[in-house]
Amino acid sequence: MITPVGDERYWNKPTQTAPREVLDAMHLARIRHMVAWAYEQSPLHRALYDQAGVKPDDIRTWDDYHYRLPFTDKPHYVADQEARGGFGGVALPPEHWQQYFHTTGTTGRFLNEVFTQYEMHKAGTQYCYGMWDVGVRPGDSIYFCFDWGAWIGLWSFYWGARNLGLRVMSGGGASGIDRVRQIRELRPTIVCGTPTYLLHLAELGGSQGLDVREAGVQMLAGGGEAGFSIPATRRELAQAWGVERIYDAYGVGEALFVAQSCREWAGGVHVIEDVCHSYSVDPATGEPVTEPGAVGENVLTSYAHFAQPFIKYRTHDLVRRDPQPDHGCGWSWHYLPGVVLGRTDFMVTVRGVNVYPTAVENLIGEIPGLTNHYELHVTREHGMDRMLVKVEAAGATLDRHAMGLALADHLRTHLGVRLETEIVEPGALPRYELKTKRIFDHRAPEERPSATFGRRD
Q1: Which of 35, 217, 372, 397 has minimal CB crowding within 10 Å?
Q2: pTM check: above 0.85
């Protein structure tokens, strides 16, 4: 039974309630340690720092960190991965690795990730702050709507469940309707999944006369999409499942879940400052964004990933930041109202997988017989986002059906999710005198995350 009690809400009270000057001193010391580790152990970081003319001892102040230390970005790791074969940016040899994952990137190439035994256990603690705060305790149970593939998001949530002593119930390999039946039979305390999939399950169950509200679920939890922090979606989830509590976790695959909601959900998540440092920059200039409430790109340094360090890492997620939150929870950690407001590069989440238009364009160019004239059509059906990739063939006599199948398989292989494809005859798509229109979002305004969380001008 989820029953939060008084001061027992804090997983690590000394840091969760520490003054900002104490937290800042802690962060700078940890960042300096990570920079020294990466320089000594990671050929990628040593090359980046040498190119910038920076040595670890040069990073002594926040100005040094902000203005002297170079940013890292996913293309750095992917390029290093391709040059070295297998993995990029690593700082420990393979005998220390225990588990492998991958994440997609804007180039359409997987970024391979490795974690040690320590890092897997440490990642599990990243969930404990928010889950403990809402009253989750050992003996509660959690059902995972997850096929246990190579996406790290819900794997790390599983590690969190193990750290908290929860009974784990797996829906791996089951169909949607079978998962509904299992949830109704097992009656877990918590159901974990992406918000669109949880809405899909409720709708699917209703169509078969199986009301998920009869399962007695007390909380929904997960991440991977914006829905858990979109008020309209939260209301829809609460009504569909009959729950009072919805837990949101914001994650970046390279640093795992780095922010989560507290008991007094106020429209966003707290940065878990025990495991990472987070600040905002102007996406165009890289200058720190210091005005409270202003939108900037979230930049992370992870303290929990030594095998593959991510330091001053550009997430391309646009966030607002409240450095001194005061909505009753007592946490002093930075707060991100609205969580992710958008991307510096447009992105659509399809069945929990981030799909970047630039990645799709890159992969289209690798299929013989296709042109660079394409359109991406985004729709929502049964509570889930879908994407149709429409591309012109290069010649009228080509087998468009076969090319469509080849493109779908190629996208599935490199993005990790199957997209719909349609190959049209030459000249079928419009031409534009100025900027070409590639993306057509057919979702209703209230179904688009950007409609709820716009930038502040």
Answers
A1: 397
A2: no
